[in-house]
Design goal:
With about 180 residues, this protein is α+β, with helices and mostly antiparallel strands. It has helices at about 15-20, 20-30, 60-70, 70-75, 155-160; strands at about 1-10, 35-40, 50-55, 80-85, 105-115, 130-140, 145-155, 170-175. The chain has an eight-stranded antiparallel sheet. β2 and β3 form a beta hairpin.
């Protein structure tokens, strides 16, 4: 089962986050084979981290909750909240398999929160070689569509937003993002 986990930083926690960085990476090293994508988000127009994205394949919702809430930064109070939802990998690959590589261009987390009928349940948008990861956000039992999460390479935030059909979502968040981890 695939899960989307987004730890959002608590205001003023950057120093604590940096202090715990090696512990965070060591924790994530335990999940190296299960990770589909990972990396920090940043405040718009700045270098300050604003959150941490992990897309991970785990046996069940209980394992996903343990993954999210045992993370050292969460345990130490770095994060103000955690968004943890089932996710479905529509690209069939990890971020490390992205043909565009780890560097070059701007990268974004595009998070669309659902409204009305489900979208993006059967396929990723065609002709988009800028998609790093893409899939629907679902309830724990995978029966209710809640939105879509994508990691995308784009020239700017407006272009990144274009990966989702705006009319299908109650809200779309755009966060600068970069590849994370040691690889």
């Amino acid at each position: 089962m695939e899960f989307f986990c987004y730890h959002r930083d608590r205001p003023g926690s950057t120093a604590l986050r940096m202090e715990l960085l090696e512990r965070h990476w060591s924790y994530m090293d335990q999940y190296e084979k299960e990770l589909i994508a990972r990396g920090p988000t940043f405040a718009p127009g700045g270098d300050a981290p604003s959150g941490s994205v992990h897309i991970v394949d785990l046996p069940d919702p209980a394992a996903a909750r343990a993954f999210a809430f045992d993370e050292p930064g969460y345990q130490a109070g770095v994060y103000r909240d955690v968004l943890l939802l089932r996710w479905r990998d529509m690209l069939g690959r990890t971020m490390w398999d992205f043909p565009g590589g780890r560097t070059g261009g701007n990268r974004y987390l595009v998070l669309g929160l659902g409204a009305g009928g489900a979208a993006d349940l059967t396929a990723a948008p065609g002709g988009r070689d800028d998609l790093i990861a893409y899939g629907p956000l679902l309830s724990d039992d995978a029966t209710t569509w809640l939105g879509t999460a994508a990691l995308v390479r784009a020239p700017d935030a407006d272009a990144a937003r274009g990966v989702l059909a705006v009319e299908r979502y109650a809200d779309i968040e755009i966060h600068p993002w970069e590849f994370g981890g040691r690889r």
